[in-house]
Every structure is written in C-alpha cells, then in structure tokens.
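User: I'm putting together a teaching handout on how sequence relates to shape, and I'd like one worked example. Could you take Acylphosphatase from Kluyvera cryocrescens, show the sequence you're using, and then write out its predicted structure as tokens right after it?

Assistant: Happy to. First the sequence, then the structure tokens directly below it.
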Amino acid sequence: MEKCVICWVYGQVQGVGFRYFTQQEAGRLGLRGYAMNLDDGSVEVVACGNDERVEKLLAWLKAARPAQRSG
C-alpha cells in the first residue's frame, strides 16, 4: 500500500550532511519526497512510497538522530 509521511527532525541537523544522507537512504529504499532545511534549524522530511519502506525510513531517522522529533 502507498503511504506518505511528513516529519520534522530537530537538533544538530543542519550543516552536518543530514539532508544528504536522508535523501540517500530514501533513494536506496525507492521512496519519493524531499528533505528541506527550515528557518527554525530543523529539517522537514516528506517521504512517499511502499508502506513498509516508508516505515523503514522512519526507523532509520529515529536511529540516525538522537534528537527531538515531531511528525
């Protein structure tokens, strides 16, 4: 089943390659979407694709950043 999620990642996520690595992982999983820096210092991540693969990206995001998250 197709699924889309939007989440925001907080903490030290700008200027450290976080968007790049998130986009690489999403591409590896065959997902569509984007990762974008926001003015408040967080990163917005939008991912669409197979439900199981989207869940894998969400798990990767949680493991990759021990920072506060919303989404």
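A couple of points you could highlight for students: Residues 51-64 form the longest helix (14 residues). The chain has one domain: 2-63.
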